[in-house]
Amino acid sequence: MSPPDLAETEDKPRRRSRWIAAAALGLISSSFSTIVSQLFAARIGRDAAVDWMTVAAIPVRDWALSAEPSWSAIVTGIAFHQWADFSWALVFFGVLGRWTADLRPWTILLLALPWAILTSGMEWFVLVPLFPFSQPLFTLQQPYWIGFLVHASSALMYPLFVRLRWIHDAAPAWDVSFSNAWSAGALAVIAALGAIALFGARGYELPWVGRDKDMDQAYIRHMTAHHAQGIELAQLAVRRARDAHLRKLAMLMVSSQIGETRIFASWWRSWFATEMPDCSSAERAAMPGLLTTNEIQQARNAPPDGFDGLFIALMSQHHRGAVKMADQMWHSSGDPRLRVMAHAIRHEQQGEIALMQGASGAAAVGTAFRNMLRDNVN
Q: What mean pLDDT is predicted for residues 244-260?
């Protein structure tokens, strides 16, 4: 046997072990990011069920969308997310294993965040909205930073590969010690987030830390009232819209705004320990984008062949008002959680305007990128 043939034969078991270890890491990292995403979502104003439903819409399109996220859509979204994270681990330690399989844990950790930026960017800018899925909803509905946080939580598990790569041989003592400590840290994070989520579900979120309580209270009250009208209008479209895709978008609007309203109510109870007062007539009149009683009645009475166009016009006006309100909060000195949530709301509602207008492809990516950065406070 020639030396090249011998070398090739000796490399096969090592390559096989590398791929097995990469697959094991993919299961661990994807599961960790799923659990962290589920527990952490509400802490930054995200409804996890709605987010999983939106992820499910990538492979199964409009089937996943409903006014109340179904268990089938949630499970599909989680499974698709797990598959994606699993695949990225295979790429990092399998496809690129010639360069990454022997890295030390701290080197892997240094590469984790750049890898999260690369992979989340590939999904948000290319793989989901363009090729192969051609689904603009995800990119227009969720700002890029949400995907980055999810990918970062997954990539932070990559240093465990230093233990998994020793499948057929005893791992060095240092690799074992490091992996045990890293695993314990990951479990501690899950336990802490689980405890915070449990207390949050019982009305005990982490305390309010903003600088202007009156401003934050006004924003929560106003956006809650604004969302209530948006839900009413979207529910009308769920029943009356002729275009099937528009009807599904209306369902998504209902579910996302109901979820955000629940989070506002939970934060209000936790932070201010009072009943949330209703908005006065004067406050409602001053809200940007809030529709008049006549405009709502006009939508109710619109003829079947004229409803879709009228709904798009009225909901676009309503969304633009919510975007202005969210932008004001984003640029304020309010509680950081409210500000982060506001940034996501402004991106989501601008994205829904684009979706109602049929945005797709590269144009949708450009719109989503501008929506994430554009200043709408005027």
A: 98
